[in-house]
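Note to self: the last two entries modelled the partners one at a time, which told us nothing about the interface. This time every component goes in together.
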Amino acid sequence: MLATSKEFKQNAHHAMADRGLQKALARTRPQNPAKRAAAVAALPEFEQLRDIGRDIKNHTLQHLDFYLETWEANVLSNGGHVHWASTADDARAAVLAICQQAGARTVTKGKSMVSEELAINEHLEAHGIIPIETDLGEYILQIRKEPPSHIIGPAFHLNREDWEESFRKVHTHLPADRVFAEKRDIQAEARVLLRDKFLAADVGITGANFLIAETGSSVIVTNEGNGDLTQTIPRVHIVLASIEKMVPTLEDATSLLRLLARSATGQEFSVYTTFSTGGRLAGDLDGPEEYHVVIVDNGRSAMVGTPFQDMLRCIRCAACMNHCPVYQTVGGHSYGWVYPGPMGSVLTPSLIGVDQAGDLPNASTFCGKCESVCPVKIPLPNLMRHWREREFERHLQPASVRSNLALWAWFVRRPALYRTATRLAAWGLSLLGRKQNRLTSLPLAGSWTAGRDLPTPEGDTFFARYARQQRNAR
Amino acid sequence: MSRDAILGAIRRGLRRGPLPDDQAMAVRARLASHPRHLIPARTRIPHTEQVDLFLDNARREFATTMRVADIAAIPEAVADYLAAQNLPSAFVMAPHPDLREIPWADRPLLRLHEGRAEPDDLVSVQHGYAGIAETGTLALPSGPDRPTTLNLLCDTEIVILSACNVVGAYEEVWDRLRLERTNAAGRFLPRNVMLVTGPSRSADIESTLELGAHGPRRLHIVLVDDPTGM
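The predicted structure of the combined assembly is written out below.
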């Protein structure tokens, strides 16, 4: 997918004026944190599990080469196939080759973010193979030719009327005047239509939430069952998985699964958690005959051994974006690429370059909520700060930002001057805003105050107050 | 090519070559002992309470449940359930030896055939390998006697589960599979293990939960207290 992360500011501006999106955000904004909080409250060990989850992922990353080799050997001994892909091109070529080998005309797909990252659908279509998204949210996005706006609720930004309109437009074999009395009628229409697609597909492509070295398995987690139909009915199953999905054992995967659904949707466990280990065995009456895994790097191995290695712990639960004041204001499309929200603000610059995505790590209030809910304790604000520093080092920011920063740096290195000036400024501002306790416009900061008010200082500067407290404490 | 590039880049990042022998031994030992991590306290209760917790949690996730005393009571339980749902009394059944022991002939109106599910099968009867009390989850490993399509294609799935196969935590299922199924090559997982918690659902339309997305709209669990004969 073509990145528009460079246009973050403009994207965000449009998003804030998008009434449909704002309606959807108003709906989900309070819901998601409340659901997670309830699930966490029902499991007293949740906080301990977060430490365990972090440690499992850290251990795996420290031995990632070893576990990848162990996993590969087990997939092969189970009769499966492993295709290594350094780049997106390698991965697309591998998927296409398997599909062509299978003589595929249609391919059903379970929800997979790495598939979005690799733009698999476009590649298959260009070679005459029809990909069909089967996750309800992904299905409507494919109809509307839109990218997902959330990593687990890809179409949360759409409203009911959007669904009805798109279904009427595309499902032309059904009576045009049919009534969707309930939301479930929309879902039922998709169920019937996609059932035929599942049965006709030659290849099924799924992602993976985890790969398990011990057993050579891949794990998917869904509520709809679409991923399971995708990987059970067609003759060939292709798993697309990036290298950081690895965990050593079933027990490790199980501990992380205890964190995943609770952090994601507030469920205790997703409806279908499925462990796939190779193709059909002797006597099996169903299941795919061939099992392939395309194991994708696409920039991740370069994060190992850097501060951004921590980001490879991510289990894609979306808790960070569900709790992010920025994401909850501008939605997912503003971020301009596959991964939105705080996790995207850290991962996207790693995968497509900080020159392309430098605005993203700046799109944060550093409130720290994302880190506080992350099931594997990724220090997201800290990693965003790392990107800001790199952006500064590489002179990627506009000249005005750099010159203002330079001015501030000059100023802050002269403490006496700084304190006097800030005391004067605080006094001046409080005088200016005395009446309404807030300032709606400021000289030289017009674009800042256009979107928000500045609360007036309550007399003292922080320095003065701190010094006084220290004196009183003595 | 990609393989060497990926492994090489990881090793460069970790500032080492292939894992040194002593460290590799430690990691192999961890794989071999597959240590358990924290097991939630809610699962560490007497077995009778685990059975109740399993049923409570399954119902909370929108499964329906019925508890019967022995296998003789199963045909009537299934027939009554199907009638109450206005469903035809025909179903496709897993070719599992335990299910064959059920005296289905006691209810001559029930029509069953064994095999995998086909698109026009409305009801399936599946064999439950284990029930996990922690979250009301069924463990359904695939095999010739437990086809995966029975969990997916029918509108209604009925799972017959022995109370003695209810466990506390997921990890107990992994250990049971290891114990019962490890072959000469060290493999113990079948092609597929589905952990199923309630019927299929989606919240993709306006974040409103609706049951019956792509998989079964109804999941009915028949728990058998005394599985003698099965």
